[in-house]
Amino acid sequence: MKRKVQESYTEEMDLTIAVIVYNRCDELTGTINAIERAVKYLDPHYRVELLLIEDPYRNKYCSDLIEIDLTKWILIKNKKKIMPQIARNLALQSAHGKYLLFVDSDIEIDEKSIQILLNFAEENRFGVIGPQSYNPTTGEKSYSGMVRSKLIGLNVPKYSKEEFFEVDDVQNVFMFDRNLATSLGITFDPRFIHEIALFDLKFKMAGYRNFIVNRAVSYDKHGNSSHFRSDTFSFAWYARAHVWKISRSLFPLLLSLISISMLDLYYFTHYYEPKSVSESLRLLATSYLNCLFGMIANK
Description:
By secondary structure, this protein is α/β, with parallel strands linked by helices. The chain is built from eleven helices and ten strands. Strands 1, 2, 3, 4, 5, 6, 7, 8, 9 and 10 form a ten-stranded mixed sheet that branches. It is globular and about 55 Å long. The N terminus is likely disordered.
């Protein structure tokens, strides 16, 4: 089936929705359909830009492998793998929307969710916002920030029943004011394992608060157990090696274990509250051990 590709917008939009595709072709159809249903639910005055950025998958692209109409989408097909972290910065550069909403390619959102997030954005001062995530199989609430906090041995508050509640960061589906991010110089740093967390925490360090909005709903098809999967753990290390390689900096690549440890130590001491050096070293050790144990347990 031959499909046309949407021409790139040149005018300012109200919202850009970006989906980054690395290798999850099977789930992409559901994600695209859910987004388009949610866009149809929006107030008609909203101008929306749909952006799909993908790395090659087995020498092809997921958009070519699925039977779905993508004429409403702007497709950016990277000739080589640039990894999701760098692709998010590409989305930042390519977007025209006042707000930028990232939706992971294995996530489905409720049709009312985007409108609810936009309503919140227009009425509140915030850094990053996102919907409450649910496991589609069990129906249980999930928040990847809590799972990630388990990696570093931190206790986090239970889910709030309030209309919205504050969190350190929002994962999987998250929205922010693109101009605010630009003015603050906030981009994604692919050298860190938790580059989305760091992106969100930069808003917090700049004096903005991040929220989950309960009435907005998303469904994580993989569940947050994926934080402990061996392929996820390996991917984080590969991604940083890839970044160093394309930056032609061989020295940190050769010393990757030391470099990664130093970067994560910087992350904990500067962005996670911040912590003292001794506490950060404990969190660092706990994080790596929990990743390894989780990787072994989920083989």
